[in-house]
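for the writeup, i need someone to sanity check this before i put it in the appendix. the sequnce is what the collaborator sent (i think, or maybe the updated version? ugh). structure was predicted straight from it, no edits. if anything looks off just tell me and ill rerun, i have time this weekend
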Amino acid sequence: MKRYMSSALLYAILAMIGGVFYREFTKFNGFTARTTLSVVHTHYFLLGLVFFLLLVVRGVTQVMGADLSKGVDAAISGMAGIGHILLGVSLVLLLLQIKRSVSAFQP
């Protein structure tokens, strides 16, 4: 239980850092449009270390106005897509395991 609390605290701190980074980075660069960086904070709070790096990379390139090649843009999207598929499978497996555990304790 202590390990889970430590992990939760770490994720909460990193989520807050992500939120501050988004706010300060966009303000520093005078960026007011919508960016992927805006969801780093909430994604980290809800999911932990899932796709954090890809969200930051995508968001920073948006704020900086980087002109990505089609290949790099597709690679970032592809890695995020693969990650979402893995996350979806993981959540289903986790819920199935919880269901099995609950069923084992019911008379």
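The chain has a mean pLDDT of 87. The chain has four helices and no strands.
thx in advance!!
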